[in-house]
Structure formats: structure tokens, C-alpha cells
Design goal:
By secondary structure, the chain is of the alpha/beta class. The chain folds into two domains: 158 residues, no CATH class; 207 residues, Vaccinia Virus protein VP39 (Rossmann fold, 3-Layer(aba) Sandwich), CATH 3.40.50. The protein is built from 17 helices and 14 strands. A hairpin with a 4-residue loop joins β9 and β10. α16 packs parallel to α17. The chain is elongated, with a radius of gyration of 32 Å.
Length: 432
């Protein structure tokens, strides 16, 4: 009978590393093929079960070999035997070993033929985990994690087999921990993650997920900035650094900038970038309102005033919210909103105290409340005008601007901030 190599068996096997294959070839050329190939006699054929590398070398060099027959009920039983045999190999990577464990677990569960969801389901699943764990000398939790890892690797393999090969060789350092998490929490990213890993541009799943998330967000931004009929939505979002934003906006196209940059000292250079941007994109008479802390006000003024005219400082009060500044022995109940103007101001008469009815950090750690931002939008703009926030954060300025009939442009270099803002703005357009 002729020996047959089945594709469904071949794809479950791990290729030898180059140095392992070289050593095996040298051995069989020197000593011959000593160990018999394991075959399964079925329907007049000998299906190769174990010894694929030796069989390939025998064909290449015309070497003789012996066979040992082993009988199985069906292909699933044969695959189960192959998995168990592979598990005994000492040269498996941690990733390969987990994949085999996961496949064994899923195959055992499938063999029982139980219903999808039932108390019996959980009982059988537990017994299966116990059986595989005992066989492999690991805990049940490891077996269950292995099953999730195996599912994720199989999903990657469908998109890019070379990516799965890199993972199983141990070249993707955080794959064991991170890949199952991404597969469970963000399965829509797996396709792009596979492509990123296959391209060799990343060495970690987290890096691939970040790149995939950024790609998806940029696609969402492009889709969300226009309606299906081709008309513009009342908002546009860009994922970029503030220093890249000026090139995306027309000069003197913005009526007001209302923003809340980060306060810590290491972010002070951003205030100069903000002033330069405002000088370019604000319309004459347009306002720049900058919420900030008190600790570095002299530095903020020295960085911004060379580019845009200081006009006034407003007091922003969040109800019931005090900040403890231990280094200064200060319990602060307000924060400044510095008001700059491009050229001369001819707008509304403005009351210089803004009261927020609450603090709101649920969309961003540094977020401000809708009520407080809404007051600033109401006092400094009119319906139909365009508001810009170059430090988008959780998107509150955009939400309130659109809700109050203004156009909005926002940007942030954090993809999570863009994603959150896209979701909130879409809800405003759909439901408000």
C-alpha cells in the first residue's frame, strides 16, 4: 500500500527548526532511518501518522524505512493520538505546547457530543479539563487558557498563516497572555493584528492591536466625517498631534478654541504649540479659551503671549470639587480659564465666572462636565459657528458644541480618546 500524507494531519504538525532538520538529515544519512514510521491502514492506503520529516528525507535521499501500523476508529481519534504524541516532544515552544493542549481540550469536548448550553455542558467541560490537565501535568486553569489561546491562533492562521507561525515559534513575546484577551474583547481587530504580525512591523500583540485600533479609528473617522449622501456631518475628528493639526485646517477658519490641555510641568511646551495654532486658524476677533491649573501660570503666559493677545482670566468653579495641592498648602476650589483673542474682540459681554454643576471623569480622567463646557460655548460662540478642541479627551466639548448647534473640529493623539468621542458624537447626531 502507498503512503498518503493527509492535509488535515499535516497542518496540525509543527515544522522543525532549520538546525533540527539539518541534524536529523545528518543522522539518517549516517545511520539510516532507525525508528519506524507510524501509519494508519485505511481504505487500502497507509495514512502517515508520525514520522513526516523522516518520510520526506527518505524520499529525498532514497532511504529505506520500516512502518508500524496503528489502528484508529476515525480521523478524530487519529488526530487526538497525534496531539498526545506531540505533547511528549521536548523541543516544543511554550506557545506550541499550549496550542496542543487547547486542541486536545476542544477535541475531547466535541467528542462527547453534548448540547451547547446546559448544566451537563459545564460538568463535561470540567471533567474534560481535569482529564487533559492530569495527562499534561498542569492545572485545569492552564488547560482552559490553552483552549482560548488555540482558538485565537486558529483565527490568526485563517488570515495569515505566517503570523500564526511566528506566534508558535515564540517570536511574538506577549502572545500567550495578550492574544486570547484581544480575541475575546476585540475580535474585530484580529484580521489587522494578523497582518501586522505577518508584516514583521511589530513584535508584540499589544503593538499589533494598537496599530490595528489606530487603523480602524482612522477608517471610522473618514466614514463618520461624511454622511451617506456625501454631505458633511457637523463634526470632524483627526487623530494626530497638535503640531500636525495646522496643516489640516484652513487659516482663519475657526470661531473659537475651547480646550483643556494637560496641566503637569512636562506638558508646558504644548501651550506654545497651542498659541501658534490659534494665531493661524482663529478668525480675527476669535477667542482661545484655555483651561489650566494655577501652578505654572507664569510659564503658560510666557509661552503663549508672544503669539496671541491675552484678554482676561475667567474663574471656573466645579460644584463640591476641591483639589488638594500639598506642595503649595492650597485647597483649590476653582481653576483659571485664560482668555486670549486674535486681534480685537467685538463679541458678547461676558460674565467671568463659570459654574459647573458637577465634575465628570467618566469619559476621561481629566474630563470636564458638560454643563461647564456648555456655559463657555454659549458665552463665546453663536449657533452655526465652528469650535475647535485640539485636546479632545473624552469629547465633551464636541458633544456640547454639536448639541448646541455649532460645528466642531476635534483632535487627539490617543486612539482611545478618538474612539470614545466618535461614539458620543454619533449618539448626539442620532438621538438628540
Amino acid at each position: 500500500m502507498s503512503i498518503v500524507v493527509l492535509p488535515e494531519i499535516k497542518k496540525t504538525l509543527f515544522p522543525l527548526r532549520d538546525e533540527e532538520l539539518t541534524a536529523l538529515e545528518a543522522s539518517v544519512l549516517n545511520e539510516g532511518i532507525r525508528d519506524p514510521l507510524v501509519v494508519w491502514p485505511s481504505n487500502g492506503k497507509q495514512i502517515l501518522i508520525d514520522g513526516h520529516n523522516r518520510y520526506r528525507l527518505a524520499q529525498k535521499h532514497g532511504l529505506k524505512f520500516n512502518v508500524q501500523e496503528k489502528h484508529f476508529v476515525d480521523i478524530e481519534e487519529a488526530l487526538a493520538w497525534i496531539d498526545q504524541n506531540q505533547l511528549a516532544r521536548r523541543n516544543l515552544t511554550d506557545e506550541q505546547r499550549l496550542l496542543v493542549l487547547g486542541r486536545m481540550y476542544e477535541r475531547q469536548k466535541k467528542a462527547v457530543g453534548r448540547p451547547e448550553k446546559s448544566a451537563q455542558n459545564e460538568h463535561i467541560s470540567q471533567r474534560t479539563a481535569e482529564k487533559i490537565a492530569s495527562l499534561a501535568g498542569v492545572g485545569q486553569a492552564t488547560v482552559r487558557r490553552a483552549a482560548e489561546f488555540a482558538k485565537a491562533v486558529d483565527a490568526i492562521k485563517e488570515v495569515a498563516p505566517e503570523a500564526a507561525e511566528k506566534i508558535l515559534k515564540g517570536e511574538v513575546k506577549d502572545a500567550i497572555v495578550s492574544l486570547p484577551k484581544v480575541a475575546k474583547q476585540n475580535p474585530e481587530l484580529l484580521h489587522d493584528i494578523a497582518e501586522e504580525i505577518a508584516s514583521g512591523s511589530v513584535r508584540k500583540v499589544k503593538e499589533a492591536a494598537s496599530a490595528a485600533r489606530k487603523k480602524k479609528i482612522l477608517e471610522d473617522i473618514a466614514k463618520n466625517n461624511e454622511r451617506e449622501d456625501g454631505s458633511e456631518r457637523p463634526y470632524k475628528l483627526f487623530q494626530c498631534d497638535i503640531r500636525e493639526l495646522a496643516s489640516k485646517l484652513e487659516p482663519e477658519s475657526i470661531d473659537a478654541i475651547i480646550t483643556d490641555p494637560p496641566y503637569p510641568k512636562e506638558y508646558l511646551p504644548l501651550y506654545e504649540d497651542l498659541a501658534k495654532l490659534a494665531a493661524r486658524v482663529l478668525k480675527p476677533g476669535g477667542s482661545l479659551l484655555v483651561m489650566t491649573g494655577q501652578s505654572y501660570l507664569p510659564e503658560v503666559f510666557s509661552l503663549m503671549c508672544p503669539y496671541i493677545r491675552y484678554y482676561w482670566t475667567l474663574g471656573y468653579i466645579a460644584a463640591g470639587h476641591h483639589v488638594q495641592l500639598w506642595a503649595r498648602n492650597i485647597n483649590s476650589g476653582w481653576k483659571p480659564v485664560i482668555w486670549f483673542v486674535k486681534e480685537d474682540y467685538h463679541g458678547k459681554k461676558v460674565f467671568d465666572v463659570v459654574k459647573s454643576d458637577s465634575e465628570d471623569k467618566k469619559f476621561h480622567d481629566w474630563g470636564q462636565s458638560e454643563s461647564g463646557i456648555g456655559v463657555l460655548i454659549e458665552r463665546f460662540t453663536y449657533p452655526g459657528q465652528t469650535v475647535l478642541d485640539p485636546f479632545l479627551g473624552g469629547g465633551t466639548t464636541g458633544v456640547m458644541a454639536v448639541r448646541m448647534g455649532r460645528k466642531f473640529i476635534g483632535t487627539d493623539n490617543d486612539p482611545d480618546a478618538i474612539n470614545m468621542s466618535l461614539s458620543r458624537l454619533a449618539d448626539v447626531v442620532i438621538y438628540d
